[in-house]
Design a protein that fits this description.
CATH topology of the largest domain: nicotinate phosphoribosyltransferase
Oligomer: single chain
Number of domains: 2
Helix content: 40-55%
Low-confidence stretches: none
CATH superfamily of the largest domain: nicotinate phosphoribosyltransferase
Structural class: alpha/beta
Strand order of the largest sheet: 13-12-1-5-3-17-18
Distance between the termini: 40 Å
Mean pLDDT: 96
CATH class of the largest domain: Alpha Beta
Strand content: 15-25%
């Protein structure tokens, strides 16, 4: 069965109605985030790769039509969808770029039935991936150079969500993931330590550490808080020295006052001559907890970040939308209260003075970078890049963000303005629709 049923029913009904009525004019739909969640100063574009895989070769096939009939759709609607395939163009912000509210992440230009049908999937993929990448980026900012490992697999809402989280976190600088399949699929480094169950399965804590080290001599990270953290650290020290593990060993703290425990553990390790043994912390961490540990001077070398990053716990969704902005050469504008849109296909120019949302056919100023690039032509993918390239792009954009956008609390995103031509088009369309000069605020 094809991918065309990965959509909401009303998309199919609208697409069928457009085709039945001969409405095959080109439409442009714009996907963007209306507003940033609280305390967010930026977003990181992510999820485009899966969108392009979905769109490339997308068609409503015979199996899809049979399934729709089985689901109870009438024959007229099903027949109207026969032969529909995606033939459009797509412009998008490449993955890894920093984006802001009101800026298109992606725009689809295609016969209107095709552009309508793909709305649900595109929103699903871009919304979740961008939200998680943005959350992970904040932990990256908070960690101030300490290594980060994705521990989210067991708490994400489903297996595919876990794959997205591993990929998104790697894009913004996580050094490894505990998710073995994600590591295989995306070429990531895989990392893991031990669980409390392993320690509890042995009569003595040091016996557990010794057995684990003998079986994993190159990655002997000991979980020291199963019973008493200070005693656990001492037993780890004894085993590390006994087996001569040196820098291949480490300890993991997973509970309690991590700042105080890390400081005590560092002193104990250093006094034992184990200055190369690293301290790894985990347990309900997010950017706020990590920032607090950094401020406290906790000597932590790496953090395992799971649930709070993997589900973006404090802001689990984005106010993302996919809106018609042009049909058959006619600019389209929505005027709903609090949900007004700006007509016309867009481009975003980024320069020293900030971001400017412009019309697609505007010439960028000489000192500006155009964010959206063509990624599909005539229904076929024309844009591919590696995860490493996306990560490099993120690193570059992150360095250019002002301090107020990087703040974890009370952040202030950079200002986004509209070009004179985009403002003029908006005012003109509004006047035609309402008969007044001043359009509502977007």
């Amino acid at each position: 069965m094809g991918r065309a049923l990965l959509t909401d029913l009303y998309e199919l009904r609208m697409a069928a109605s457009f085709r039945r009525r001969g409405m095959d004019g080109e439409a442009t739909f714009s996907l963007f985030v209306r507003a940033l969640p609280p305390d967010r100063g930026f977003l990181v574009a992510c999820g485009l790769d899966s969108c392009l895989d979905f769109l490339d070769g997308l068609t409503v096939d015979d199996d899809d039509l049979d399934a729709l009939t089985t689901l109870g759709l009438d024959d007229v609607t099903v027949d109207a969808l026969a032969g529909l395939r995606f033939t459009g163009d797509v412009w998008a912000v490449p993955e890894g770029r920093v984006v802001l509210a009101g800026e298109p992440l992606l725009e689809v230009t295609a016969p209107i039935a095709e552009g309508q049908l793909v709305e649900t999937y595109l929103l699903n993929q871009l919304t979740f991936a961008t939200n998680v990448a943005s959350k992970a980026a904040r932990t990256r900012v908070a960690a101030e150079g300490a290594a980060l490992v994705d521990f989210a697999f067991r708490r994400t809402q489903g297996v595919e969500a876990a794959m997205t989280v591993a990929r998104a976190s790697a894009m913004v600088g996580y050094v490894a993931t505990s998710n073995v399949e994600a590591a295989r699929r995306y070429g990531l480094r895989v990392a893991g330590t031990m669980a409390h169950s392993y320690v509890g399965a042995f009569d003595l804590e040091d016996a557990a550490f010794r057995a684990f080290a003998e079986d994993n001599p190159g990655n002997a990270i000991f979980l020291v808080d199963t019973y008493d953290s200070r005693h656990g650290v001492q037993r780890a020290i004894d085993v590390i020295r006994e087996l001569g593990l040196g820098a291949t060993a480490g300890i993991r703290l997973d509970s309690g006052d991590l700042a105080a425990l890390a400081a005590e553990a560092r002193t104990m390790l250093d006094d034992a001559g184990l200055t190369d043994v690293e301290i790894f912390a985990s347990g309900g961490l997010d950017e706020y907890a990590i920032a607090d540990l950094v401020v406290a001077g906790a000597p932590i070398d790496a953090y395992g970040v799971g649930t709070n990053m993997g589900v973006s716990a404090d802001a689990p969704s984005l106010e993302s939308v996919y809106k018609l902005v042009e049909y058959d050469g006619r600019p389209v504008m929505k005027l709903s209260t609090g949900k007004a849109t700006t007509p016309g296909p867009k481009q975003v120019f980024r320069g020293r003075a900030g971001d400017v949302v412009a019309l697609r056919d505007e010439t960028p100023p000489s000192d500006c970078d155009a964010l959206l690039v063509p990624v599909m032509r005539d229904g076929h993918r024309v844009h591919r890049e590696t995860l490493a390239e996306a990560r490099q792009r993120f690193e570059s954009d992150l360095r250019l963000l002002p301090p107020e956008a990087l703040r974890l609390r009370g952040s202030s995103p950079p200002t986004v303005t509209m070009s004179a031509r985009a403002e003029a088009l908006r005012a003109s369309v509004y006047k035609k629709l309402i008969g007044r000069e001043e359009p509502p605020q977007v």
